[in-house]
Amino acid sequence: MLPRSNAALAARDLAVVWHPCTQMHDHETQPMLPIVEAQGVWLTDADGKRYVDAVSSWWTNVLGHRHPCIVAALKDQLDRLDHVMLAGFTHEPALELAEELVRVAPPGLARVFYADNGSSAIEVALKMSFHYWLNLGRAGKTRFIALTGSYHGETLGALSVTDVPLYSATYAPLLTKPILAPSPDAYEGAPGETPAGTAARRLGELRALLERHAHETCAVIVEPLVQCAAGMRMYDASYLAGLRRLCDEFDVHFIADEIAVGFGRTGTLFACEQARVTPDFLCLSKGLTGGTLALSAVLTTNAVYDAFYAEYRAGKAFLHSHSFTGNPLACRAALATLQVFRDEPVLANNRALAAHLAQRLAPLRDHPNVADVRQTGMIAAVELVRDRATREPFPAHERRGLACYRYALDEGVVLRPLGNVVYIMPPYAITTDEIDLVVDTAMAGIALAVR
Ligand SMILES: Cc1ncc(COP(=O)(O)O)c(C=O)c1O
C-alpha cells in the first residue's frame, strides 16, 4: 500500500493536481494539507492532526461535517437511485426539494430551476432574466446592475457581474460590462453616518442609475446583507427593501444571490427575510446540501415562469442545462439539511453562538491595527489596517492575512483571510469552547500578522 502521510500525499498531489484559487508556486514553501477525515467542525489530516474548519470549507458547510441525518439520507438514496437526467424525467428528491424550498422561501417564489454549483445558478438567473424580457418583446434590455465589491462566481457570466478585480481584471476582455452601483457597505459609509443612512444614500444613487439605464437593464443583482468575497462587507437590511421598491418602480428584476448567506448564516434562514422582501430570483447553493454535494437552485415567480410557457414553435423555452442538474443524491442531502432546520432549533442556537462570538471578538475593537470588527449572525470579520486613524490599508502584496493563515494552521484552526480581513464563519455545530479556541488563535495570528 502507498504511504498515507501528509508528506507522501502532498508530494503525489503536487505532481498532478492544479488547485483552485492558488498560485501553485506558493506550495514550494506552504505545505499542501491532505485531509482524510471530517466530523462536526473538525478536519483531520493524514498525520492525524486536527483543525477547526472555521471557514466552513469555503462557506459551504452549515451544520457540521458528516451530519448524521445527511449521511443516513445519502446512504439510503445511493441504494436506490444515483442519477438520472432531469429533462423528460423526474424523481422524488428533486420534486420534494422543490416543494420544500418553495415552502420555506420568501412568499411568491413558486418555481425551482436546478443547476449544480453557485456560478451556474448565477448564469441561470442572468439568462432567465434577459430571456424573460426578450419573451415579452423587450429586446433592448441586455444589461445588469451589480454593486461595487460584488462577487457572484467565476464563470464568464457570473464574473461579468463581479467587481473584485483580483478575480475579474485579467479576464476583462472576455466579460460584458455591468453597470456598477455603489455598494451600501457600512464600512465605506461617510463619517458619522449610520448603516441605515448609508443604505438610504446608496439607494438614491441607485435610483439615479435606474433613471438613466432602466430601459436597457434586465436586473439588479446583489448579495443580500453581506458581500462575502469583498471582505465580509456588511450593510443595512433597509437597502434590500428600498431595492425591491426601486425594481418594481423601474421594471427591472431583483436577483438575490444567497449562495453564501443562505441557510441561516445571517440569523434568518434567508437574508432577504430581514427586509421582508421577495426577490424575482433567489440563487442558492453551498449550504443547500449542508455543504456535502454540489447543487444549486434558482427560485423564481410564476410571472417569470409564465413568460416562457408556450407552444414549442413559439421558441420561448429556457433551454439551459447542466448534466448533473438536480442530482438525486444532492437533492436528498438538501432535503436532510432542511429537515435538520425543522427538527432542531438551529437558528436559536446560532443566536447564542453568535452572541458568544461577538463578546469574544469585542476586545479587538481597541487594537491599533483594527479598523472594524463587524458581524452579521454567524459571520464575523476583523478589518486589519496599517493606520487605524486614517484606515490606510496594508498593501495587498504584503500578504498580512497569509501570516495569520499559516499561524492558525500550526495551531489547528483553518482561517483563510480575505486579504486584510480575518473572518470567522464556522459550521453551526461549533461549541463555545471551540469558538474560544478559534478567537484566541485569530487574535494571536493577527498580532503576528500586523508586526
Ligand atoms: C455570493 C456568491 N455567489 C456565487 C458564488 C459562486 O459559487 P461557486 O463557487 O459554487 O461557483 C460564490 C462562491 O463563493 C459566492 O460567495
From TrEMBL:
Assigned keywords, A-Z: Aminotransferase, Biotin biosynthesis, Cytoplasm, Pyridoxal phosphate, S-adenosyl-L-methionine, Transferase
GO molecular function, one term: pyridoxal phosphate binding
Recorded catalytic activity of this chain's protein: (8S)-8-amino-7-oxononanoate + S-adenosyl-L-methionine = S-adenosyl-4-methylsulfanyl-2-oxobutanoate + (7R,8S)-7,8-diammoniononanoate
Pathway annotation: Cofactor biosynthesis; biotin biosynthesis; 7,8-diaminononanoate from 8-amino-7-oxononanoate (SAM route): step 1/1
GO biological process terms, semicolon-separated: biotin biosynthetic process
Binding site for substrate: 58, 151, 286, 321, 416
Cofactors that this protein relies on: pyridoxal 5'-phosphate
Residues binding pyridoxal 5'-phosphate, per UniProt: 118-119, 257, 322-323
Residue ranges of the TM segments: none
One of the Pfam families matching this protein, by short name: Aminotran_3
Cellular localization per UniProt: Cytoplasm
Keyword Transferase belongs to the record: yes
KW S-adenosyl-L-methionine (keyword) present: yes
Function of the protein: Catalyzes the transfer of the alpha-amino group from S-adenosyl-L-methionine (SAM) to 7-keto-8-aminopelargonic acid (KAPA) to form 7,8-diaminopelargonic acid (DAPA). It is the only aminotransferase known to utilize SAM as an amino donor.
Family as reported in the entry's similarity comment: Belongs to the class-III pyridoxal-phosphate-dependent aminotransferase family. BioA subfamily.
Protein name stated in the entry: Adenosylmethionine-8-amino-7-oxononanoate aminotransferase
Taxon lineage: Bacteria, Pseudomonadati, Pseudomonadota, Gammaproteobacteria, Lysobacterales
Gene name for this UniProt entry: bioA
